[in-house]
Amino acid sequence: MRQIVLDTETTGLDPQEGHRIIEIGCVELVNRRATGNDYHTYLNPERDIDAGAVAVHGLTNADLADRPLFAEVADDLLTYLQGAELIIHNAAFDVGFINHELSRSGRDATLEASCRVVDTLTMARERHPGQKNSLDALCKRYEIDNSGRALHGALLDAQLLADVYLAMTGGQTDMHLESERPAIERGTTGLAQRLAAAGRRPRVIRASAGESAAHAQRLQAIARASNGAALWLQDDEG
To answer: Which of 79, 108, 120, 176 would you call most buried, defined as having the most Cβ atoms within 10 angstroms of its Cβ?
Structure first.
């Protein structure tokens, strides 16, 4: 199964009031494993960013002046997302913004037409009724390190959400390969950024001859002390 964990940052809260997307971050999971085939772009919104939004994500118009317009990346984004199951926290917000941008760029397309959308906020509310279910709260609940999240960022938040989703749906989140990620993607110890770099097998460290001999001697001592009742001896006999 191919899943895309997606997040956006915007100039404000409502696309109907002319607000635009300024950052899109996506993390690809295939069969619940991060592939490293992530998607990330900043966008020039062609309008001022609300001061309240700048306080959240730290991006200013000066930062985005030389970035592409949404219309310039729309086809690549749709191709990347095609047919995937989208994992989004508070999906109505991000889906609404992307659909508005697609319409604004003259494309007769919506995310829901080509993708199934899973809202992790709805999922979290069902699993944890009456509790806080923000991304930060879920990171704390599932013991996911979000200490690098001083400001929101679409790619970082998608990586954190990938960890939360896997933990919330029963996945393993304890393979630490953070040192192999670029510095911009570090700041958490989550599964998405650790596994995205794991294009090779984990290094296997084998016992030396001396260690193997010491291990065998220890097993013999335990066997003698147990009068032959050691469980591994019984397994061998069975």
So the answer is: 120
Pairing of strands 85-88, 2-10: parallel
Contact between 185 and 155 (Cβ < 8 Å): yes
In sequence order, which residues have a C-beta less than 8 Å from that of residue 4 and are 6 or more positions away? 26, 27, 28, 29, 39, 80, 81, 84, 85, 86, 87, 115
Mean pLDDT over 159-185 rounds to: 66
Q: Whole-angstrom Cα distance, residue 117 to residue 16? A: 21
pLDDT in tens, 90-134: 999 999 999 999 999 999 999 999 999 999 999 999 999 999 999
Sequence-separated (6 or more) residues with CB below 8 Å from residue 56:
9, 151, 152
pLDDT band at 236 (very low <50, low <70, confident <90, very high): very low
E-strand stretches of 164-235: none
Cβ atoms within 10 Å of 157's Cβ, excluding its own: 24
User: How far, CA to CA in Å, does 207 sit from each of 115, 210, 213, 217?
Assistant: 48, 8, 10, 14
Distance of CA 112 to the CA centre of its chain: 21
- What's the pLDDT at 235? 47
Catalytic one of 19, 152, 176, 215: 152
Active site residue 40: no
Distance CA 159, CA 153 (A): 10
Task: Please indicate whether residue 232 or residue 17 has the higher confidence score (pLDDT).
Answer: 17
CB 79 within 8 A of CB 49: no
